[in-house]
Structure formats: C-alpha cells, structure tokens
Amino acid sequence: MREEEDVLMPTTIDSAIIEERSRSAAHRGFDDIAFAREDERILSARGENPFCGDEIEVRLVCSADVAGEQVVERARFDGYACTLCLAAADALMEQVEGMTASQAASITFDDLCRWLDGLSVGRTRKGCVELPLRALARALADGVH
C-alpha cells in the first residue's frame, strides 16, 4: 500500500491566518516610532490603491551600521485597508526589521506571499499585497541616499 504524500495547500485570501494577522497586527501603529535618537532617521511614505480605496503609510527607523549602510531598526505601518493588505503590511514590517536598506528594497511580491504562509492571490487582489511593498520602496528611495 502506497502512503499518500502530504500536500501543502496554499494560503488563500480568506484564510484564518490572514484574518488573524490583520486583526492582531503587531506592527500597526506609530506610537513607538514618533521619535528617533540622534543617530537614527525616520523614513516614511504613503501609498494608495485607487481601485479599492486602501491607504497605507509605512514608517521606518533606520541607523547606520559600521559600514555606513542604513539598517531598519523598527518598522511600522498604519492606514485604512482591507484584511489582505493589512496582513501583508504586518508581515512585511516584521520581516524588514534588522535588514539593511538594500535588502529591504529587494523584497519581492513572491517573498511577501511566502511570508504569508504561501499566499496564493489572483490578479484582482494582487494590488492589496503590493501596496505595502510600494510604500516601503518609496520610503527607502526617498530617505536612503
């Protein structure tokens, strides 16, 4: 008798994982990012999805490492958005903490879907996942030279 292989099903946009991350987003809000030390910089950018009305703001606190490259010390987001966008923003902010600016700037849509337990999303909801990525890229581009 042949044993059946475990097949991992991708996470879908309506899964409990997405709902829980959205509802209990640990990286939502700017209370602990209002001020930066003298050796830190606050980078921020907003993004919106005109098709659905989602709006996200990303804020990063960065400091230079010994080589002079900016490192993301703290990352937060806030805004009005759908469950999928909020979950994606929370996962993204969690992952970028500790990354250099160049590492954070190279994050892809596929990376973010993988961090959301293999999220599978169709083209109509792809913008919901991409919005936090676009805001992150804009904050990094505007603030790190």
Task: Produce a short descriptive summary.
This protein has about 140 residues and is an alpha+beta fold. Helices cover about 35% and strands about 20% of the residues. It has five helices and three strands; from the N terminus they run H-E-E-E-H-H-H-H.
Beta content: 15-25%
Q: Which sequence of SSEs, written as H and E, runs from N to C?
A: HEEEHHHH
Q: Total strand count, please? A: 3
Helix content: 25-40%
What does the main sheet amount to?
Answer: 3 strands, antiparallel
Largest sheet: spatial strand order: 1-2-3
Cα Rg:
16 Å
Task: Please give the alpha-carbon distance between the first and last residues.
Answer: 62 Å
Structural class: alpha+beta
Continuous helix count: 5
Coarse shape: globular
Describe what this molecule looks like in 3D:
- By secondary structure, the chain is an alpha+beta fold.
- It is built from 5 helices and 3 strands.
- It has a 3-stranded antiparallel beta sheet with strand order 1-2-3.
- Strand 2 and strand 3 (70-80) form a beta hairpin.
- Helix 1 packs across helix 2 (83-96) and helix 2 packs parallel to helix 5.
- The longest helix is centred in the C-terminal third of the chain and has 18 residues, at 126-143.
Helix and strand topology:
Blueprint: H1 16-23, E1 40-49, E2 54-64, E3 70-80, H2 83-96, H3 101-105, H4 109-115, H5 126-143
Helix pairs in contact: 1-2, 2-5
Task: Please supply descriptive tags for the structure shown above.
145 residues, 3 strands, 3-stranded antiparallel sheet, alpha+beta, disordered N terminus, globular
